[in-house]
């Protein structure tokens, strides 16, 4: 039953991606409203999936890699819904939908929805720590998307070759402001997430702790360098992509080791 | 009722011919002299067109004579330059004109305002009745829809507008931008005014002749900077507009690179419209610097024009839908009206007009 919600959600994101591709091919790029609607409906289905799965498990549905990927996709969509209209970042939906589609598509196709008995009882601190960290990842993912948009536009401005998409992208300065805000939001949530991890009462694998702190340090360094104006906006945008790639690898590692130790 | 459009434009007539028929008549005088129930005269630098509604057939010659009625000019010599569209072809033509598809620069928006002005003028004089009212109101709606739903009006096509468009792509709002104008020539002044029109208020003008710099600074509301101090301004400014007569590049990587370390978080947009160029091309390789010389600005303008041309098909599709809807909605009598006697060369010109 819950997978139907996920399939419906994935179809919504697929519709947004297909619509974007069709618009791009026709050089008629006005997908903002459609994409926002498609992502909104997709988000509702995602929420339904997580709720049904959570009811079934009796805990926050992040007990295996499949659920973690869906929760991450949900966090990305949530961040987009909160940030996209607030900062009026046009075309962000067109860039967000493919990432969510990729995460959910992978979760649906790959044989990673393995049900195993979780030996650790439901722990509110542990769930708070894991879910908040994943929401922070959503903000980092959106910062990564804004970074891609920044680099795309910057490249076109440098080379003097302006694609039709150029005229619909937000100005560089606006994109950079959005990247900075998303990094701060993500960093704040991630900090609280990491700190709450120390209150779970369960000894976590050292490798997880070291990797999580390394990621925290990476984002702290980016933000500090940005604050001190040591990094150009282009470098910050590129580092957002590096940071989120590292976060994905870390997420994979954490979930893998957690599954080994049967920790949610 | 017969709806028609008779006119000449940059497609069919040179400027001498167009000015021969422009400025001598009004919608009201044409309606009266030709015996039209309704008439509207659209005159711009690129076209002179009469839109009319009549119970009887009114020839192209009659309209041409009305256009020069107040003068001693002979309209017959210019007959081949005229085109004529009737009923749904006329509707389609007006929708294309209002949307900028028939303009010299495809997608330009000035024609929209000119058509509105012509409509207001004819309405005030009482020459416009219910048919032309509905037709033009629909044309304005179509033009807005074309502009909103296609990229036909996207992109800038002149030096000034390209500079402004690119600056907005980089900085967003230009009101916070600091601009240095190096060289106080005519093109610089035009481009500066284009930037001012988008909110730029912090303007610094530098020129070899300080008097000329002061003169331009006064004209545009900026402040003059001695020529020997201009390079130091690069630490602060966001936009550099340069157009001097210097034989060698004034700004090189060696000069600019050390200053960029002090402004790593801010972009620098350089518009170099000087020939020979004032800025060494390698400056574009520096991080955060976007250098556009006159060729790259022209290239951007060409890309915009090409983008607009690619959008014409989408715009035509929107127009076709509206033409069908409009023609179906207006009284059927409009399509059954007697055909006006054609000028001997009108059929040929009409075809030529539509092909162009």
Features:
heterodimer; A: 264 residues; mainly alpha; 8 helices; B: 356 residues; alpha/beta; Beta Polymerase, domain 2; Rossmann fold; 6-stranded parallel sheet; 4-stranded antiparallel sheet; 12 helices; disordered C terminus
Written account of the structure:
The complex is a heterodimer of chains A (264) and B (356). Chain A has 8 helices and no strands. By secondary structure, chain A is mainly α. The radius of gyration of chain A is 19 Å and the shape is globular. The two termini of chain A are 22 Å apart. Chain B has 2 domains: 2-154 and 309-355, 2-Layer Sandwich (Beta Polymerase, domain 2), CATH 3.30.460.30; 159-301, NAD(P)-binding Rossmann-like Domain (Rossmann fold), CATH 3.40.50. In chain B, α2 (27-34) crosses α3 (60-67) and α7 crosses α8 (186-197). The two termini of chain B are 28 Å apart. The model of chain B is unreliable at 335-356 (pLDDT under 50). The A-B interface holds A 26-30, 153, 157-158, 160-162, 164, 166-167, 169-174, 226, 229-235 and B 149-151, 154-155, 166, 168-172, 264-265, 267, 284, 287-288, 290, 292, 296, 299-300, 303-304, 307, 310-311, 314.
């Amino acid at each position: 039953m819950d997978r139907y919600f996920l399939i419906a959600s994935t179809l919504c994101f697929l519709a947004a991606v297909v619509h974007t591709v069709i618009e791009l091919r026709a050089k008629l790029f006005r997908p903002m409203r459609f994409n926002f609607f498609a992502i909104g409906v997709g988000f509702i289905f995602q929420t339904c999936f997580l709720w049904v799965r959570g009811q079934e498990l009796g805990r926050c549905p992040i007990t295996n890699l499949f659920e973690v990927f869906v929760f991450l996709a949900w966090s990305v969509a949530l961040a987009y819904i909160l940030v996209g209209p607030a900062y009026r970042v046009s075309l962000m939906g067109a860039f967000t939908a493919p990432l969510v589609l990729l995460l959910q598509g992978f979760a649906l196709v790959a044989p990673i929805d393995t049900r195993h008995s979780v030996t650790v009882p439901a722990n509110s601190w542990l769930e708070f720590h894991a879910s908040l960290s994943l929401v922070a990842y959503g903000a980092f993912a959106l910062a990564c998307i804004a970074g891609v948009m920044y680099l795309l536009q910057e490249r076109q401005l440098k080379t003097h070759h302006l694609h039709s998409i150029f005229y619909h992208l937000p100005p560089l300065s606006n994109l950079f402001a959005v990247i900075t805000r998303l990094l701060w939001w993500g960093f704040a949530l991630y900090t609280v997430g990491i700190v709450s991890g120390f209150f779970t009462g369960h000894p976590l694998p050292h490798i997880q702790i070291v990797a999580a702190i390394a990621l925290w340090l990476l984002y702290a360094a980016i933000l500090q360098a940005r604050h001190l104006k040591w990094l150009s906006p282009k470098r910050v945008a590129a580092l957002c992509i590096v940071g989120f790639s590292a976060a994905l690898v870390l997420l994979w590692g954490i979930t893998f080791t957690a599954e080994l130790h049967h920790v949610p | 009722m017969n709806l028609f459009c008779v006119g000449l434009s940059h497609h069919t007539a040179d400027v001498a011919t167009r000015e021969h028929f422009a400025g001598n008549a009004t919608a009201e005088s044409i309606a009266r002299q030709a015996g039209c129930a309704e008439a509207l005269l659209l005159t711009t630098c690129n076209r002179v067109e009469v839109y009319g509604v009549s119970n009887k057939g009114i020839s192209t010659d009659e309209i041409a004579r009305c256009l020069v009625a107040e003068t001693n000019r002979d309209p017959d010599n210019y007959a081949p330059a005229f085109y004529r569209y009737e009923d749904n072809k006329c509707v389609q033509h007006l929708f294309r004109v209002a949307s900028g598809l028939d303009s010299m620069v495809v997608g330009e928006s000035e024609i929209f305002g000119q058509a509105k002005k012509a409509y207001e003028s004819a309405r005030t004089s009482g020459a416009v009745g219910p048919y032309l009212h509905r037709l033009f109101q629909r044309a304005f709606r179509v033009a807005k829809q074309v502009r909103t739903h296609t990229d036909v009006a996207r992109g800038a096509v002149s030096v000034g507008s390209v500079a402004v468009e690119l600056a907005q792509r980089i900085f967003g709002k230009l009101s916070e931008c600091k601009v240095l104008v190096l060289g106080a020539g005519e093109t610089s002044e035009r481009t500066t005014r284009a930037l001012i029109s988008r909110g730029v208020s912090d303007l610094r003008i530098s020129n070899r002749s300080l008097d000329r710099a002061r003169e331009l600074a006064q004209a545009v509301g900026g402040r003059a900077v001695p020529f020997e101090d201009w390079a130091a301004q690069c630490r602060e400014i966001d936009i550099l507009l340069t157009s001097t007569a210097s034989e060698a590049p004034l700004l090189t990587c060696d000069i600019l690179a050390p200053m960029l370390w002090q402004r790593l978080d801010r972009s620098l947009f350089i518009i170099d419209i000087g020939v020979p160029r004032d800025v060494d091309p390698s400056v574009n390789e520096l991080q955060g610097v976007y250098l556009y010389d006159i060729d790259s600005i022209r290239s951007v303008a060409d890309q915009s024009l090409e983008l607009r041309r690619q959008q014409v098909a989408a715009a035509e599709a929107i127009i076709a839908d509206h033409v069908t809807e409009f023609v179906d909605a207006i009284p059927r009598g409009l399509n059954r009206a007697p055909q006006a006697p054609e000028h001997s060369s009108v059929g040929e010109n009409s075809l030529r007009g539509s092909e162009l």
